[in-house]
Design goal:
618 residues, binds ligand BES, alpha+beta, binds zinc ion, 8-stranded mixed β-sheet, 21% strand, 36% helix
């Protein structure tokens, strides 16, 4: 027996499921799915079969002929969940499992109508990466194995279901509707995804449409309108797009990530809808995953850099092709800054700053950081510099072609690269990059004219003319480069109205700088952001800055304590389900001093945990 993924009970000597047929009734009242999952094996099998589950109530296990099979649901382990052990009679071609999910299913966020833009219908979405698919479906929840699936979702008739799959029709039945889907391309389980809500769509081009709540659709359609050009640029670089469609879903604001590369239907935070397409880097990133990650997949979370480092590389190549070398360099510089910060944040766990990690006993959500993204990027950038851009791109295409619809480890990557460029890995000391902690000295220091202009300010107030020429990314880089505490915060805001910025990246970079400089005038705006946005990238720096500042915390606590909060705050509390969960309460008026201070203590003790994901509504 061998378990080849530290985050799955899957045993590579057992039967392997190649397809899934899921039928699920979505019940917003009980916040559960009542479901039946049929798994079909590569070939008929017998003996023990271990599946991953988390918080599932298993009602029955049968073979495909309806014969009951013996099973045992083991006690749950904290990271992996509960092992479902099934005994298969010899020659069993597949199994059917009847079960219910828990209202606490870690992959599911159930939103109240007040947490949506429309305000009248509830909303449900899934987020399965890294190891949450098992809270929705009992299966082999390891990216080492891929499945195709069909799904049939029974939902309230007033709502629409979308899925990271092809739509195969909708059938109304009284006050419910059945939505059918089929995923013809095989995927690792973390790419299983769906959402249910009041959703409408708009076509962007022949291969793409955008989905959103009605109140958001116009803005979303404009923001993502350049997707066609992006796809053409990406295909030019990496080869044909293999997933037929590339649709995007603008999520409710509580979505915990910037984006999630669910195949055929990327999920995007509404915080990238800036009105001027300035934050579409996230779209480029998720699109790039269609090659790196979705087509060539990390075999387990220890090789996560193969997904994210390659994707950041691919994303920046798209940006270079569409926006040119200056934009490219600014993005690289932001990446370098993020890398330096992450490595510093993980000072007490340097083993998590390797590209290839050892994660037995570590929750992948706790290991999450910018390291696999940016260190991975700078490593690939070094390889590219060493062999030349064109040869590297040709190699990248051959790597994608060699492993498409497969799952690989770092060793597979090394062998493939070595085959194309013998001796280069040794020459750049790849071993230090891959298995050593921190940032090797050979990491590039991004350079460009515009970058130098920002750096030469040394954080001083920029001249109006220069600042007016800045892109959102340049603003972000400038604000991050201002030494803390900054003495000219009030002037900065007066001149450039940063507190009023409608660009979420600029806004959060500014609010972080202001809080870290004890410029307390921004506290109400911080509070507003924290109460509406669930994107962890934004919550983490804001909470960390608050946690380091007693006065700001007290002022927030005073403003929002339950007895002082005006009724209007109820509305401000929409869409805060992730942040509300962080504070452990479903009450919209929940920011008591005690809770913020409790968070603060938690952040101090374990800074890396601030980014943990638990996509649950409460
Ligand atoms: N696949 C990730 C999101 C993810 C990673 C979810 C690990 C759960 C576990 C996605 O592609 C991603 O990297 N999103 C980034 C945006 C991007 C522009 C770097 C994010 O959400 O910040
Ligand atoms: Zn990614």
């Amino acid at each position: 027996m061998a378990r080849r993924d530290p985050h799955s009970y899957n045993d590579d000597t057992q039967a392997e499921a190649v397809s899934l047929a899921l039928s699920a009734r979505v019940d917003f009242t009980s916040r559960t799915l009542a479901a039946e999952a049929t798994l079909t094996f590569v070939k008929p099998a017998g003996g023990l079969l271990d599946l991953d589950t988390r918080d599932l109530a298993i009602e029955a296990v049968e073979d495909l002929a309806g014969q009951r099979l013996a099973f045992k649901l083991h006690p749950a382990e904290p990271i992996l969940g509960a092992r479902l052990a099934i005994t298969l009679p010899d020659g069993t071609p597949g199994i059917r499992i009847r079960y219910r999910t828990s209202p606490q299913a870690s992959a599911l966020q159930w939103l109240e109508p007040a947490q949506t833009s429309g305000g009248t219908q509830p909303f449900l979405f899934s987020q399965c990466q890294a190891i949450h698919a098992r809270s929705v479906i009992p299966l082999q929840d390891t990216p080492r194995l891929r499945i195709r699936y069909t799904a049939e979702l029974t939902i309230p008739g007033a709502l629409t279901a979308v899925m990271a799959a092809a739509h195969r029709g909708r059938e109304a039945q009284g006050d419910v509707a059945i939505e059918r889907f089929e995923m013809p391309q095989s995927i690792p389980p973390y790419l299983f995804a769906f959402a249910v809500g009041e959703l409408v769509s708009r076509d962007l081009d022949a291969r793409s449409r955008v989905w959103a709540e009605p109140a958001v659709i116009d803005r979303a359609a404009y923001e993502f309108g350049g997707v066609d050009k992006m796809m053409l640029a990406a295909e030019e670089l990496f080869g044909p797009y293999d997933w037929e469609r590339f649709d995007v879903l603008a999520m409710p604001p509580s979505f915990p990530y910037g984006g999630m590369e669910n195949p055929r239907l990327t999920f995007l935070t509404p915080t990238v809808i800036a009105g001027d397409r300035s934050l579409v880097r996230v779209l480029a990133h998720e699109l790039a995953h269609s090659w790196t990650g979705n087509l060539v997949t990390n075999a387990n979370a220890e090789h996560f850099w193969l997904n994210e480092g390659f994707t950041v590389y691919a994303e920046r190549r798209i940006i270079l092709a569409l926006e040119g070398p200056e934009a490219f360099a600014i993005h690289e510089a932001l990446g370098r800054r993020a890398l330096d910060e992450s490595v510093a944040r993980f000072a007490d766990r340097p083993e998590l700053t390797r590209l290839r990690t050892q994660l037995a006993g570590v929750d992948p959500d706790d290991a999450y950081s910018q390291v696999p993204y940016q260190k991975g990027y700078f490593f690939l950038r070094l390889l590219e510099d060493t062999v030349g851009r064109e040869p590297f791109t040709t190699w990248l295409r051959s790597y994608l072609a060699a492993f498409r619809f497969g799952s690989i480890t770092t060793t597979d990557f090394e062998a493939h690269f070595e085959g194309a460029f013998p001796g280069v890995l040794a020459k750049v000391d790849a071993a230090t990059w891959i298995d050593g902690p921190g940032i090797p000295l050979t990491a590039a220091q991004p350079r460009s004219r515009r970058l130098t202009a920002i750096e030469s300010l040394g954080g001083a107030l920029p001249p109006d003319e220069l600042a007016r020429s800045w892109s959102a990314t340049e603003w972000q880089l400038y604000l991050e480069s201002v030494p803390r505490p900054c003495a000219h915060c009030a002037k900065l805001d007066e001149r450039f109205h940063l507190t009023q910025s409608t660009n979420s990246e600029i806004l959060v970079a500014w609010l972080t700088l202001a809080l870290q400089s004890k410029h307390h005038a921004v506290v109400p705006r911080v509070e507003q952001v924290l109460s509406t946005v669930g994107r962890m990238k934004f919550l983490r720096p804001l909470y960390a800055a608050l946690a380091a500042d007693d006065r700001a915390v007290r002022s927030i606590a005073r403003d929002v304590s339950p007895d002082r909060a005006p009724a209007g705050r109820q509305r401000a509390a929409r869409s805060r389900s992730l942040s509300s969960r962080h504070r452990g309460s479903a009450n919209p008026r929940r920011y008591t001093a005690r809770r913020v201070v409790a968070r603060r203590a938690a952040d101090r003790e374990a800074p890396a945990r601030a980014g943990r994901v638990r996509v649950r509504a409460r």
